[in-house]
Design brief:
The complex is a heterodimer. By secondary structure, chain A is of the alpha+beta class. Chain A is 40% helix and 21% strand. Chain B is built from 14 helices and 18 strands. In chain B, strands 3, 5, 6, 9, 10, 17 and 18 form a seven-stranded mixed sheet that branches. In chain B, strands 13-12-11-14-15-16 form a six-stranded parallel sheet, with helices on both faces. In chain B, strands 2-1-4 form a three-stranded antiparallel sheet, with no helix packed on it. The longest helix of chain B has 13 residues, at 336-348. The radius of gyration of chain B is 20 Å and the shape is globular. Classes of the chains: A alpha+beta, B alpha/beta.
Chain lengths: 273, 388
Amino acid sequence: MMGAQSISPARARGPAPRAADRERERPRVNVNQTERLVSTLLGGALVVYGLRPRTLRESALALLAGGTLVHRGVTGRCQLYRALGVNSEVDVPVARQLMPPPQAQATVTIGMAPQELYETWRDPEKLKQILGHIADVALTSAGLRWSMPGPMGKRLEWDAEIIEDRPGELLRWRSVPEAKVSSEGAVSFRKAPADWGTEVTVLLRFDPPGGVVGNALARLLTAPVDALVAAALRRFKSLVETGEIPSLAHNPSGRSERSHRLPLLPRATANAE
Amino acid sequence: MRALCWNGINDLRVETVPDPVIVNPRDAILRVIMSTTCGSDLHFIDGYIPTIREGDVIGHEFIGEVVEVGRDVKKVKKGDRVVVPSFICCGNCWYCKHDLYSLCDNTNPHAEMQAPLLGFPTAGIYGYTQAFGGYAGSHAQYIRVPHADVDCFKVPDGVTDERVVFLSDAGPTGYMGADFCDIKPGQTVAVWGCGGVGLMAQKSAFLLGASRVIAIDRFPERLEMARSHVGAETLDYTRVDVAEALKEMTGGRGPDACIDAVGMEAHGTGIDYAYDRAKQALHLHTDRGQALRQAIYSCRKGGVVSILGVYGVMDKFPVGIMMNKGLTVRTAQQHGQKYVPRLLEHVARGELDPSFLVTHRMSLEEAPRGYEMFKKKQDGCVRVVFAP
């Protein structure tokens, strides 16, 4: 889900996909100046150390490590960074590149006109149903008030302001500067071909408190954001196309007292053939 | 209420479970009048379809009486006797509007379980694994039917229950399979499988204008049904080389269209069958595709292969034969809502009477024994109907 129709600000700033492909083929500088200097000096020291009389094992290790560091420093190309997909030359810290904030974007086609769908998204009752599985979202005069369960039973609450509003096309919001959870999101509506209706794209990004550690925790503790966004889109679609969201509430089963575990493969329990 | 629950591979039990209730505004609650076994149930009973859960209420082919309706139900009324296709459809999405009902976008609450396997999710089904929606099934005293105005078809007074219960699934599935064949006068249609769906496909092929129908199976009583109730010619695949026999019967051309009404647990003969059986036993592979391969091989050049049998993720498939012979392959789970009105008319005019499929009648309490007989095809069993 990238390319010309992307509404992700993070991705919009990045290089075009084709340029990215070319980069992957040809190694390029991915270590910043300070790090290169440190790398060269440290590597040089290790080489000097390795050239002194030592055991063969010590010398070999020191020369190998030193040589690698010097090469890294002089060329500015790090194989490890490349393998991990990080780059210390850009503004974003390496740790954050390794554990970026949870973010997802998904698109669905809905059989209605863009304007109708835009209006649904601005209807407080409908919005509650669409995003109810992620957070309680209320429309306020300034924008949106978000409230969701956080770690250790605490609720995370924050305000977001609408930063772009093009009726029938796009709605973009971002948490206010003093918000505990930095987040942003957008929904866009584009006319689909023939009788398909409208292509709706939703983007959500959460930046939980605690920086990189918070991101890692959020990933562990909450459902993957892409699953939440996909579910929000399905709920939205069903709600506007049929007036209801498919539900298994009170669905009869013989399971009431038993485990609610969902096996991936059925288990043999009796006279399996 | 009482309901038939899946509790593990080949472990079905009738249990007391909570009654269904109206959840969404377009729901109806039906008292189940009659519900029937379907060959496709055997796939998950045998453990070949993942995501069924212990405690799931099974069954998807049924008729019932409306006992309660949600606030947005306009057409369906309390007391109506209705037949309900096994796929749950919203009637509003692009797929429903284009008569592709089993592909409905809005009725699978577990779309996220199915999408990774298929690329995109299908509609939900009653009582047919969690990936297909997780809805409680029809082998029960009551059932919740979402989108009741779209999915309930009123049965005219005077038509017996046994004549219409198969219009829930076997009827429209078979009819759709014959419709896919684009039958022209003078054409011959071969149908693999003489279970409920196969027999309905054979009958439908005649209704849609086929000159000859050739039915393939190995059970004498089922082949006899194809001859006496449908008027088909028959082949026992354990006695003849099917492809050779079909060629001989069609002047060396092969059938104009071939319908696979068997699916992933096909039985067969020879090395192919041994290979499939071994792979399936080792869980390397979910499907045994003997019938489908034979259909593709036997079909005349430029003919149609219509696949109704249920498959998982089959990995050994003769695409080269299909391609070089210029075959058209058409397939779907039943788009029942498109075909049920037409089938009700055929029944009303006396052109179609599927009640011959009923070989055994039981109470719901006897359902585990019914499935055992159905699976092992004991006592000439073709279909068992349960009256809760």
